[in-house]
Write a structure and sequence with these properties.
Length: 115
């Protein structure tokens, strides 16, 4: 079985779309540009991530989106790039057997980066 798509409600669709493209390599689905109300991205495996605008977005505690990396060095590199771009992210640390960090994305959901 293969996951086909996931829908996230976000506070700002274009900002979240561009963030995910720049920092996690997702690509606009079929070359589409983000719109204020919705956008679609895909990963290297073809999974589609739909972003829909919502007001007062609140995810339950523990909810997060994880981006697994090939090495701890890659986790450190992403952490550094996020800091350079002005995002408040904690330093990576060893947790639950992974080199990882969590932070709030521009869209209002938690992201984990891990190796």
């Amino acid at each position: 079985m293969k996951l086909n798509h996931l829908n996230l409600t976000v506070s700002n669709v274009p900002e979240t779309h561009r963030f995910l493209e720049k920092h996690f390599g997702l690509k606009g689905y079929s070359g589409t540009e983000p719109k204020e109300a919705m956008s679609f991205l895909s990963d290297d495996s073809g999974m589609v991530l739909a972003l829909f605008r919502g007001n007062d977005v609140k995810y339950p505690p523990g909810f997060h989106v994880g981006f697994i990396q090939e090495s701890p060095e890659r986790v450190n590199e992403i952490n550094r790039r996020l800091r350079e771009d002005g995002y408040e992210v904690p330093r990576p640390a060893r947790r639950h057997g992974s080199w990882t960090f969590y932070f709030q994305s521009p869209g209002g959901f938690t992201v984990e980066v891990l190796a």
